[in-house]
């Protein structure tokens, strides 16, 4: 069995090679290709030691790469950041027999580079979407488990019900004046999660535009006829579960006159079309900056950033009645 110190030396060697790859070519400049390249590089390094890397692992396994009792979770970012959303705090898909987990992250923004770190030292936050998920960062200044007063290895073997009080306390300590936690239960499979709840009506105008744009990007079904019930349900759930924002009348985000007429005081016309044109720039930003996991959750597919607008317009055209979004939206707007 390979010693831990030797394995970490191999990780350093691998990240040096991966950094060269990222800087010399854009061939591996997306998450799937980068993860596969990590497998290839580790495989090449380990061949002489009689070890191998599975090039076709099962989907959704944690960590991504398993070598003996070592695991490597691979993350990728197009931005100039060493931070990323990671796995569920419940780790239901964690493979047995993995004693040591490492984070290996490649970034393209700024100077392309790859680095590795001890997974438990990289976990620095818990984000709440449909399930609480760890947020990780290479060289995190304040590891999460230092704040929770429990080690990662002790935390990970707890039941979901035993884990949630730690997360509740952590979230409560981060509340700002006027914010509250919404707690119903500690059962993760009941979608009863902690949220720092804010009212949409109390947000600033820039915040409202940002969240309207992100909602519109993830939920193209909002262009359906006004008579279609439930077309705003995903908007409500996205704002609530991802940002902790409560919006009682989601339809008013796009169909209210005060929103549609922001760019022009003239009444009449297609209010939702006018509302979307008003936030085109913010929508373009959302297409490029929202994480892959959100598109997979709301669209059911992960696409390269440059293909997202075309795909959204294709979906929107199938939903819209009496107009074609592809003929009026994103014609001149630039990000």
**Overall shape:** globular
- Total beta strands: 10
Derived from helix and strand composition plus strand pairing, the structural class reads alpha+beta
Q: Percentage of helical residues?
A: 40-55%
Q: What would you report as the Rg, rounded to the nearest angstrom? A: 22 Å
Provide a count of the helices: 14
First and last CA, distance: 51 Å
Poorly predicted regions are 183-195, 257-261
The biggest sheet amounts to: 4 strands, mixed
Q: How much of the polypeptide forms β-strand, as a percent range?
A: 15-25%
Q: In order across it, which strands form the biggest sheet? A: 1-2-4-5
Q: What's the pLDDT, averaged over the residues?
A: 86
Describe the structure.
The chain is α+β, with helices and mostly antiparallel strands and 335 residues long. It folds into two domains: 4-184, no CATH class; 197-328, no CATH class. 40% of the residues lie in helices and 15% in strands. A four-stranded mixed sheet has the order 1-2-4-5. A hairpin with a 2-residue loop joins β1 (65-67) and β2 (70-77). α1 (4-24) crosses α2 (31-46) and α7 crosses α11. The termini are far apart.
How is the secondary structure organized here?
Layout (H helix, E strand, L loop, with lengths): L3 H21 L6 H16 L18 E3 L2 E8 L5 E6 L11 E8 L5 E6 H4 E6 L3 E6 L6 H5 L3 H5 L3 H14 L6 E2 L14 E4 L5 H14 L14 H11 L1 E2 L10 H4 L10 H8 L1 H10 L2 H7 L9 H12 L5 H4 L7
Parallel strand pairs: 2-4, 9-10
Antiparallel strand pairs: 1-2, 3-7, 4-5, 6-7, 8-9
Helix pairs in contact: 1-2, 7-8, 7-11
């Amino acid at each position: 069995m390979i010693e831990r110190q030797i394995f970490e030396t191999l990780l350093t060697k691998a990240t040096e090679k991966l950094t060269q790859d990222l800087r010399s070519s854009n061939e591996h400049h997306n998450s799937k290709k980068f993860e596969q390249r990590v497998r290839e590089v580790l495989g090449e390094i380990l061949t002489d030691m009689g070890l191998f890397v599975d090039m076709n692992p099962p989907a959704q396994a944690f960590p991504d790469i398993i070598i003996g009792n070592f695991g490597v979770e691979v993350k990728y970012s197009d931005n100039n950041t060493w931070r990323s959303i990671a796995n569920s705090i419940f780790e239901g898909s964690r493979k047995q027999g993995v004693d040591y987990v490492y984070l290996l992250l490649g970034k393209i923004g700024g100077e392309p580079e790859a680095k590795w770190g001890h997974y438990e030292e990289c976990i620095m936050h818990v984000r709440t979407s449909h399930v609480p998920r760890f947020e990780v960062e290479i060289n995190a200044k304040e590891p999460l488990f230092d704040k929770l007063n429990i080690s990662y290895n002790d935390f990970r073997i707890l039941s979901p019900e035993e884990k949630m009080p730690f997360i509740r306390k952590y979230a409560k300590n981060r509340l700002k004046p006027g914010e509250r936690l919404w707690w119903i239960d500690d059962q993760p499979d009941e979608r009863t999660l902690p949220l720092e709840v804010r009212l949409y009506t109390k947000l600033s105008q820039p915040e409202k535009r940002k969240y309207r744009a992100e909602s519109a990007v993830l939920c193209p079904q909002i262009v359906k006829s006004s008579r279609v019930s439930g077309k705003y349900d995903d908007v409500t759930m996205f704002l609530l579960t991802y940002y902790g924002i409560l919006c009682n009348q989601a339809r008013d985000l796009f169909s209210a006159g005060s929103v549609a007429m922001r760019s022009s005081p003239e009444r009449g016309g297609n209010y939702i079309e006018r509302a979307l044109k008003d936030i085109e720039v913010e929508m373009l930003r959302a297409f490029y900056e929202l994480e892959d996991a959100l598109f997979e959750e709301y669209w059911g597919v992960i696409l390269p950033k440059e293909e997202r607008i075309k795909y959204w317009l294709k979906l929107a055209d199938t939903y819209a009645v009496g107009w074609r979004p592809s003929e009026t939206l994103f014609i001149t707007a630039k990000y």
